[in-house]
């Protein structure tokens, strides 16, 4: 019996020699490998259009080294020799915003290790300062917590929110002359907080704040036609005639497919100092995106391809004359037929026709 146990123990020791010992030899194997490194002190900031000199340190013995910028391979070295080199990184590929820069080392055994940093690209333009000049006043329903404001032809539409969670979110046509909702209109129950709206073709889109849901209505009958889900919060909406453009309270604006509401591309909004966040209600005017900055009297004019802030509009005169016990400035509507711009705020008793002047 003892002999049998001895044989079993011997077998275990032999197996250990073939399995455990090689595992011990291989454990931490990558710790001894020397990888290619970005010789930078930390994250990098540069102006759009500038070339950034990036110093790279590449050791001997690697199968491949790749320099990757914003998930695109910028340069590749196959079986490189040991070297230190400087690469001029161009910042005008993807617009402004924070991008990843990765130096990827591939070893001959297939192991892949990375060294990385972030590149923050700010705008090369200092925004021009404009002021909102009041041309004319119109009534606005002070019970409307304005979240979306948009013209379709000469018809003005409004979407409201529901801070009290009482089922007061409404969306539909409103009268510019009286501020009152017209029929037909539609509403959401208290579980939804309505946010921005936009009209593309025969459909009106309405996002919700924290429910990650977009409702799509027939603009003439206001009958619900479709629903889409998305990730994150919904704040403002507008469209460029092809894509739905959505804000989420951050510096990001997402361009979405109107048929599926899937993300097509994302831009980050930056001025010459850094990101501009709290982007709320949106309007698309003559090829530019206009965005209310939440809780402020500021409207940003944004270049939709790069995300650069081109102009900054001071609309504080509207707050002085229009707030009257209401909440923040929010709501820009542009009538393409008459070239008129109208602005209002949450619970404001007034809507203003405005011009933006130097």
Describe the structure.
The protein is mainly beta and 358 residues long. It is built from two helices and 28 strands. It has an eight-stranded mixed sheet. It has a five-stranded mixed sheet with strand order 2-8-7-4-5, with no helix packed on it. A hairpin with a 4-residue loop joins strand 27 (340-345) and strand 28 (350-357). The chain is elongated and about 75 Å long.
Helices and strands in order:
Layout: H1 2-26, E1 37-38, E2 44-47, E3 51-58, E4 64-69, E5 72-78, E6 83-90, E7 97-106, E8 112-122, E9 128-139, E10 146-152, E11 155-160, E12 170-174, E13 186-187, E14 194-200, E15 203-208, E16 213-218, E17 224-229, E18 237-239, E19 244-247, E20 252-256, E21 263-268, E22 279-285, E23 288-293, E24 298-302, E25 309-314, H2 316-322, E26 329-335, E27 340-345, E28 350-357
Parallel strand pairs: 2-8, 9-25
Antiparallel strand pairs: 1-3, 3-6, 4-5, 4-7, 7-8, 9-28, 10-11, 11-12, 12-13, 14-15, 15-16, 16-17, 18-19, 19-20, 20-21, 22-23, 23-24, 24-25, 26-27, 27-28
